[in-house]
Write a structure and sequence with these properties.
The complex is a heterodimer of chains A (318) and B (254).
Chain A (H helix, E strand, L loop, with lengths): L1 E5 L2 E2 L2 E2 L2 H12 L2 E8 L3 H7 L7 E6 L8 H15 L3 E5 L2 H13 L5 E9 L2 E6 L4 E7 L4 E5 L16 E3 L10 E8 L12 E5 L9 H11 L2 E4 L1 H5 L20 E5 L5 H7 L4 E6 L12 E4 L2 H11 L7
Parallel strand pairs in A: 1-4, 1-6, 4-5, 5-11, 6-10, 7-10, 13-14, 13-15, 15-16, 16-17
Antiparallel strand pairs in A: 2-3, 7-8, 8-9
Chain B lengths: L2 E6 L2 E3 L21 E3 L1 H15 L3 E10 L3 H11 L3 E6 L2 H5 L3 H14 L4 E5 L10 H9 L3 E11 L2 E8 L2 E8 L2 E5 L11 H9 L2 E5 H4 L7 E7 L8 E3 L2 H10 L4
Parallel strand pairs in B: 1-4, 1-6, 4-5, 5-11, 6-10, 7-10
Antiparallel strand pairs in B: 2-3, 7-8, 8-9
Helix pairs in contact in B: 2-6, 4-5
The chains are: A alpha/beta (318), B alpha/beta (254).
Chain lengths: 318, 254
C-alpha cells in the first residue's frame, strides 16, 4: 500500500485538517506521500515536512494554482498517480477536499468515499449517513481508494524535528481555462478557528439578533473559544454562514461545546455530538439539546451568559 | 442566448422523518416511510426555474433515477415550474447499489443527448450525505464545476459563482457549459400552488432504462453493515451558573 495526502493551505499556512488526513493515511500502512499545490507554498512545505512518519513531500508551485481550482489540482493529482500508483488518495472532508476528491474519483473511474469516520482495513471504511443517524461500514471494490476524511475522527499527526525530503511534483497540464478563480473573502477573526478550537461557544435562534451575539463573543474571548452558530441563526442572518455547525456546515468535536439558545435539531447535533463535554443553556427545558448535553442549565441566556462572563475569571485555570 | 438547463431530483426519505435502522443491519427502513424531493435538489430546481423566469433559460429538464415512485418526485419539480421530466428507471438490487459515480455518468449522458448548457444539482443528498454527484458529473463531461454555490450570475457565456467555502466565500467564473451545485443559501424554494400542481400532471415525463443510456452500473462498494450511532446519554441538569462553572472546572474543561 501507498498513500497520497493532498495538503490544504490558506494564507500560506497549512490547514490543520491535513494533519488529521495524514493520520488516516498512516492507518493504511505503507508509504505516505504529501502533495502541496499552490501559488506560494514554501511556508506550507516547511511545516508539512515535519509531519511525523511521512515519506516525502511533492511540490507544485505555479501562479496558475492560485485559488487551487479543483479542475487544475485534479490534473496534477492524476499526473502524480500515473507516476507513483498510489493505492489510496486522501484529503480532508471540508470545502476544499469535498470539491476535489469526487473530481479525482470520476477521472480515475473509482467511486469516492466521503467523510470517513474510521478505517477498518485498507478497503473497509466507516461513514455516517442520514445526518449521522446511521453509521455504515462499506467495502470499496475499486483498485484505488479516493477518500475524504472527517478531521475530528482522527488525531492530528504530530510535528517533529526531522524533515521529510521534498521533490517537484511530476509535470502536469495546468492549462485549464474554462474556470477562473477570482477571489476569496474570508472572515477575519482573532478567535481560534472553529473546527480546531478546544472550546466552542455556539448560539442559536434564541439569541434573537446578530447584535446579541456580542454576549457570546465576550464569553468566548475570556475562554479563548471559537464562536459557532446553528443553521437557524445563520438563516436568520444573525451571523455569516461560515460559523454554521451542523450536517451541512462544519463538523466540530472540541473538548467543550457550549450550546446557547440552540434547540438541538438533528442536523445541528450531527455537527457537534462528538464533542467531549456538551453544555446546553436554554430556557426551554424540553429542548432536545438537553438529551445530548452532559450539563444542562435551564435559564434565560440573556441573564446566564453575562453572569458566566463576569464570574468565569475566578474559575479559569491559569 | 438562453440556456438549456438540466436539474437532478433525488427521491429521499423526508427530512422530518426519524429514520430507523433495520434489525438485520442491512439498511434503513424505507417501506411505508414518507419520501420527498431532496431539499438541496429543491433549491436546484428553484434556481433553474428562476433562470427561466428571467428568460435566461429556454427550457428546464428534471431527471430522477430510481424506482417508479421517482415519478412523484419529478411531479414536485414540474409543479415548481420545470418544463418536463426524465425518469431513468432503476429498481431492486440495482438501485440499492447505485452510487454517485453511476448517477453522474447517467446525468452526463443525458446532458449530451439534450444538449444542455447548465446542470444544477443539490450539493448533497440527505440520505447518503455523499456530496459527490455534481463534481463527478463535471469531471465526466470535462466541464467546469462551481460547487456549493450561494449565488450565480450569468454574463454572456459565463457564470459568475459565489461559493461557500471554509471561513467565508469564494468567487469563480465558469464558462458554459458547466455544472453547479446548490448550497442552502442559493435561494428559498417556492411552494407549488394548486393550479401549478394540476398543470404539472399534464407535463411530460419520458421514461428511460439503463440499457437505453448504456451506462455501466456495476456496484463499486459493498455495504457490510448499517447500524445505529452510539447513543450519547443525557447528563445532569445544573441549577446555577456557579454550579455549571464548578463542574466544568472539576472536569478540567476550563
Amino acid at each position: 500500500n501507498s498513500s497520497l495526502v493532498i495538503a490544504e493551505h490558506k494564507d500560506e499556512q497549512l490547514v490543520p485538517i491535513t494533519l488529521n488526513a495524514i493520520t488516516a493515511a498512516k492507518k493504511i500502512g505503507g508509504d505516505v506521500t504529501c502533495l502541496v499545490a499552490g501559488k506560494t507554498v514554501a511556508p506550507v512545505v516547511s511545516e508539512l515536512c515535519k509531519a511525523e512518519g511521512i515519506g516525502k513531500v511533492l511540490i507544485a508551485e505555479d501562479s496558475v494554482l492560485e485559488g487551487t481550482l479543483p479542475e487544475r489540482v485534479t490534473s496534477l493529482v492524476l499526473a502524480c498517480q500515473k507516476q507513483f500508483n498510489f493505492t489510496h488518495i486522501f484529503a480532508g472532508a471540508d470545502a476544499f477536499g469535498k470539491s476535489l476528491i469526487p473530481r479525482i474519483g470520476a477521472k480515475l473511474d473509482v467511486s469516492p468515499i466521503s467523510d470517513i469516520l474510521d478505517i477498518k482495513s485498507p478497503d473497509t471504511f466507516v461513514r455516517a449517513i442520514y445526518a449521522g443517524n446511521a453509521i455504515t461500514t462499506i467495502r470499496a471494490k475499486d483498485p484505488v481508494k479516493v477518500i475524504s476524511v472527517r478531521g475530528t475522527c482522527f488525531e492530528a499527526c504530530p510535528l517533529v524535528s526531522t524533515e521529510a525530503p521534498t521533490e517537484n511534483a511530476p509535470q502536469a497540464d495546468l492549462s485549464w481555462e474554462l474556470t477562473k478563480w477570482i477571489s476569496q473573502e474570508l472572515s477575519k477573526s482573532e478567535r481560534p478557528e472553529l473546527t480546531s478550537a478546544k472550546t466552542v461557544v455556539s448560539g442559536g435562534r434564541g439569541l434573537k439578533s446578530g447584535d446579541n451575539f456580542k454576549l457570546l463573543y465576550d464569553l468566548a474571548d475570556k475562554m479563548g473559544a471559537a464562536v459557532g452558530a446553528s443553521r437557524a441563526a445563520v438563516d436568520a442572518g444573525f451571523v455569516p454562514n461560515d460559523l454554521q455547525v451542523g450536517q451541512t456546515g462544519k463538523i466540530v468535536a472540541p473538548e467543550l461545546y457550549i450550546a446557547v439558545g440552540i434547540s438541538g435539531a438533528i442536523q445541528h447535533l450531527a455537527g457537534m455530538k462528538d464533542s467531549k463535554t456538551i453544555v446546553a443553556i436554554n430556557k426551554d427545558q424540553e429542548a432536545p439539546i438537553f438529551q445530548v448535553a452532559d450539563l444542562g442549565l435551564v435559564a434565560d441566556l440573556f441573564k446566564a451568559i453575562p453572569e458566566m462572563t463576569e464570574k468565569i475569571d475566578q474559575y479559569l485555570s491559569k | 442566448m438562453a440556456m438549456r438547463v438540466l436539474v437532478g431530483c433525488k427521491r429521499v426519505i423526508d427530512y422530518a422523518v426519524k429514520i430507523r435502522v433495520k434489525p438485520d443491519k442491512t439498511g434503513v427502513v424505507t417501506e411505508g416511510v414518507k419520501h420527498s424531493l431532496n431539499p438541496f435538489d429543491e433549491i436546484a430546481v428553484e434556481e433553474a426555474v428562476r433562470l427561466k423566469e428571467k428568460k435566461l433559460a429556454s427550457e428546464v429538464i428534471a431527471v430522477s433515477c430510481g424506482p417508479p415512485p421517482c415519478q412523484e418526485t419529478l411531479r414536485t419539480a414540474l409543479a415548481m415550474g420545470v418544463d418536463r421530466g426524465i425518469h431513468v428507471e432503476i429498481g431492486g438490487k440495482d438501485y440499492e447499489t447505485l452510487q454517485p459515480i453511476h448517477v453522474s455518468k447517467i446525468l452526463a449522458k443525458l446532458a449530451q443527448e439534450e444538449k444542455v448548457d447548465l446542470i444544477i444539482l443539490g450539493k448533497q443528498a440527505i440520505d447518503d450525505d455523499a456530496n459527490q454527484t455534481a463534481q463527478m458529473t463535471a469531471a465526466v463531461l470535462d466541464w467546469p464545476q462551481g460547487v456549493f454555490a450561494s449565488k450565480i450570475e450569468k454574463m454572456d457565456g459565463t457564470l459568475k459563482i459565489q461559493r461557500e467555502v471554509d471561513g467565508g466565500v469564494e468567487y469563480v467564473e465558469a464558462k458554459l457549459p458547466a455544472v453547479i451545485s446548490s448550497d442552502l443559501r442559493l435561494n428559498e424554494p417556492r411552494y407549488a400552488t394548486l393550479p401549478n400542481i394540476m398543470k404539472a400532471k399534464k407535463k411530460q415525463i419520458a421514461k428511460k432504462s439503463i440499457s437505453d443510456l448504456g451506462v455501466d452500473i456495476t456496484p463499486r462498494v459493498e455495504v457490510l453493515t448499517v447500524e445505529d450511532p452510539p447513543v450519547r446519554e443525557a447528563g445532569a441538569k445544573v441549577e446555577s451558573v456557579e454550579e455549571l462553572l464548578t463542574k466544568l472546572k472539576d472536569l478540567g474543561r476550563i
